[in-house]
Design goal:
Number of domains: 1
Transmembrane segments: 30-49, 104-125, 132-149, 155-173, 180-207, 213-233, 271-292, 298-317
Radius of gyration: 24 Å
Distance between the termini: 52 Å
Protein name: DUF2029 domain-containing protein
Order of helices and strands: HHHHHHHHHHHHH
Helix content: 55-70%
Number of strands: 0
Organism: Desulfomonile tiedjei (strain ATCC 49306 / DSM 6799 / DCB-1)
Keywords: Membrane, Transmembrane, Transmembrane helix
Length: 344
């Protein structure tokens, strides 16, 4: 009786190669993630100390971060444009020291900014590990430009939360309708610009037009409801509107919409070293110049143009921190235009 032939070793070669390749991919991914985590921690330390050193550079910084130091009736006396960012101010108030310890206050502000930066980095690593290192470095460079002189050393509690919610907005798109609605509604309580993300539902793939419109209105009406509720609670004299009409000293041209636009146009047409075109380390202008190639590109471009229009009409274009929300959108647009090639 003849024995059955032994299986050829060559038959195991494909599976062996596949397992080795899988192991290599896993190791490479872990190595890349480890690099991204270490870089995040290093840059967070840098951002912590830089933010701390700027924390007391302007009296508005102290007033905003300590806006919940007293009773709520005192909060209702704050400047009109500060009050709607209720969630940001409240959470920051929990972190701020109650006394007058200057160093402790500075470190608390540094911890606030560095903490939100780390959460943004974590989102990059979790949702886009291939490009995480670029996104982390790009975000840090963009944030650092806000320390230029024309920002007047302003650091407000709502700057970093607004950035985080735009990162989460990008991550939720095409992944979870429920998550995106939550990001929009909760984020509006931190800063009203998050409401612009309602536009994402109009471009959501695989949805019928009526369903897109339904979710768009659900998102936008929810954001408006949050904003209106906060305005009523905080005694905003012009509900649904954030900016006030008063004298900003040298910036008093923003006291009215037409004059605000006039001031911002003059600021853009001037020639000086830290020009607004360099805002967000130049990534915002690059984003605006990239040609749209698909519906998603048009969607983000629409949000960017509307955002810029709002700043030109109601904001101060050379205060770099007001552009933080555009950081992740611009960076991901650059990544999409010039994708990484050899990262698993």
């Amino acid at each position: 009786m003849q024995k059955a032939p032994a299986p050829s070793r060559s038959s195991n070669i494909p599976s062996t190669r596949t397992s080795k390749r899988s192991a290599t991919v896993t190791v490479t991914k872990l190595f890349l993630v480890s690099i991204a985590v270490f870089i995040s921690l290093s840059l967070a330390v840098t951002y912590f100390f830089t933010s701390a050193s700027y924390a007391t550079g302007h009296e508005d910084n102290i007033a905003a971060f300590k806006s919940f130091a007293g009773p709520f009736q005192e909060y209702k006396k704050l400047r009109q444009e500060w009050r709607p960012r209720l969630f940001s101010n409240y959470l920051a108030g929990l972190l701020m020291p109650r006394g007058n310890d200057r160093k402790l206050f500075e470190y608390s502000v540094g911890l606030w900014n560095a903490g939100f930066f780390l959460i943004c980095c974590a989102a990059y690593i979790i949702f886009d590990h291939r490009n995480a290192v670029f996104l982390i470095f790009g975000t840090f460079a963009s944030l650092y430009y806000a320390f230029s002189p024309l920002s007047e050393s302003h650091i407000y509690p709502w700057d970093m939360p607004a950035l985080l919610f735009y990162v989460l907005m990008y991550c939720a798109y095409k992944r979870s309708i429920t998550a995106l609605l939550a990001v929009l509604w909760v984020g509006t309580g931190f800063k009203e610009t998050v409401a612009l993300g309602s536009i994402l539902f109009l471009f959501w793939p695989g949805m019928t037009v009526p369903r897109k419109l339904a979710y768009f209105f659900a998102g936008f009406v929810g954001c408006i409801s949050v904003k209106l509720a906060i305005d009523l609670i905080t005694g905003n004299p012009s509900p649904l509107f954030t900016m006030t009409f008063y004298n900003f000293g040298l910036l008093n041209d923003v006291a009215e919409t037409s004059r605000g636009l006039s001031y911002n146009i003059r600021a853009l047409s001037g020639v000086y070293l830290n020009h607004p075109i360099f805002v967000n380390a130049g990534t915002f202008v690059i984003f605006l110049l990239l040609l749209p190639r698909d519906p998603d590109d048009w969607m983000w471009k629409t949000i960017g143009v509307l955002f810029l229009g709002g700043i030109l009409l109601f904001g101060v274009v050379n205060e770099a921190r007001v552009f933080f929300e555009m950081i992740p959108i611009a960076l991901w647009a650059i990544v999409k235009k010039f994708p990484a090639q050899s990262v698993p």
